[in-house]
Specification:
This protein has about 150 residues and is mostly beta strands. The chain has one domain (about 1-150): Immunoglobulin-like. Helices cover about 5% and strands about 50% of the residues. It is built from one helix and ten strands, in the order E-H-E-E-E-E-E-E-E-E-E. It has one helix spanning about 10-15, and strands at about 1-5, 25, 45-50, 55, 60-70, 75-80, 85-95, 110-115, 120-130, 140-150. The strands form two sheets. The protein has a six-stranded mixed beta sheet, with no helix packed on it. The chain has a four-stranded mixed beta sheet with strand order 4-10-9-6, with no helix packed on it. The longest helix has 8 residues, at about 10-15. It is globular and about 45 Å long. The two termini are about 15 Å apart.
């Protein structure tokens, strides 16, 4: 299993100065939920830029990890997977930084989106960080990635 860790924390700051920045790291599988807040960078990082490309082998499962804070009403949504016959969403969950029930207001966490490469080809995934209710802020952050399956 490969992991694609996407850190979106710099996006808001970068958008203030006129750009949008996002990066991702390919590495080992994510740690268990209890260890997530202490996660260090993977042992063999490979930077992937928003709008960039990543290569996977058929059968690979991998996880996109996105900074998130649903207590503010925002969450990530998969807006498009241009070819679902090539790449399939295999799971999605939210992991708070502090494990409390209910989650503490203002305390964020990470959304984990798992995908599986099904067959050779190229697809693009587009994700948006939005308030999903009518009238809520849409696309406060976006992440687009081309996935090439060999």
């Amino acid at each position: 299993m490969r992991v694609l860790v996407v850190t979106m924390g710099l996006v808001l700051m970068a958008s203030v100065i006129g750009g949008t920045t996002a990066w991702a790291v390919l590495g080992p599988p994510p740690p268990e939920q209890e260890q997530l807040q202490d996660q260090a960078e993977p042992d063999f990082p490979q930077e992937v830029i928003d709008g960039g490309e990543v290569e996977l082998a058929i059968g690979d499962s991998w996880t996109v990890t996105l900074e998130s804070n649903p207590t503010t009403g925002f969450q990530w949504a998969l807006i498009e997977n241009s070819d679902q016959t090539l790449l399939q969403e295999a799971g999605h969950k939210y992991v708070p930084y502090e494990n409390t029930d209910p989650p503490l207001p203002g305390v964020g966490g990470k959304e984990l989106w798992t995908f599986k490469a099904l067959q050779k080809g190229e697809t693009t995934i587009t994700m948006e960080y939005s308030q999903l209710w009518e009238g809520g802020m849409k696309a406060a952050k976006t992440f687009v990635l081309t996935v090439v399956i060999k």
